[in-house]
Amino acid sequence: MIRDGIINALLLGYRGLPGVAFLAPWQQPVEQSFVAPLWTLSIEFYGSMVVLGLCWCARRSRALWWSVVLLGAIFAIRSAYICFFVGHLLAAFHRAEKPAPERKLLPVFFIVSGIFLCVLAEVWQPEWLRRLCADPTYLLFPGQFAPMQQKTFGAILVLLGIIDLEVARRFLSRPWLVSRSQLSFPVYLIHWPILFGPAAALFLLLNGVFGIELARIGAIVVGIGLAFACNTFFLGVDRRALELSRGLRRRLAGAPLEMPGVASVGANRIVPAE
């Protein structure tokens, strides 16, 4: 249970699934997992390390940063890690803070195209993408299954469209949405024990009384309610952790930060805030 819940889920991943290739000798088949993972926690962990490394390069040299970003993005082009390079670039150049472009059709086209690619991935993928993901070359990071990678590209297009669409910006900037966005990460961290604990137990209980459809709806509703109720406690833990990490970062840097969590662009170099 300890290996599967911590080491496999966070660090190693599973054999046969997208992950860090050189870890394969230590990976177990996903069929042996105690609880099959529903999300890519190990990819998110290593992706965060990638962003941290990019920030380190940015503090040293703009040329070094550009080289690592471009070569890294090419290396990760057929994996989920491409998302971290795209997100880092968007943050580094303050794309969401700049005025939205006047052309409204282009961001709408990005959103529609991204959704279309995600839906179409279930039944069709272009031949070049299937070949790219299946190619055994060591020059690129091991590829995801073609449908997953097509959804990855579709999600990137949707993100780009939302960032550049003024109506989406205004909606997402509403105070009540901004305040509730702080609940996102605590919910993400605590939903696993709720999903596989009380929500699963309730599903089994209701299934024997009302059938699978009503049991599913009841478990979903109760699970969501419990997640938001529990994160009221965890939100304080999350805020305290952020305060500690930012305080440590300031002491290591020897100076206050400009904007926590956002990289700033200077005349000669890119200086990541955190």
Ends apart, CA distance between termini: 34 Å
| CA-atom Rg in angstroms | 21 Å
Succession of helices and strands: HEEHHHHHHHHHHHEE
Strand content: under 5%
Question: Would you kindly provide a brief summary of this structure?
Answer:
The protein is mostly helical.
Walk me through this protein's architecture.
The chain has twelve helices and four strands. It has 274 residues and is mainly alpha-helical. The strands form two sheets. It has a two-stranded parallel sheet with strand order 1-2. Strands 3-4 form a two-stranded antiparallel sheet. α3 (62-75) runs antiparallel to α4 (82-92), α5 packs antiparallel against α7 and α10 (184-195) packs across α12.
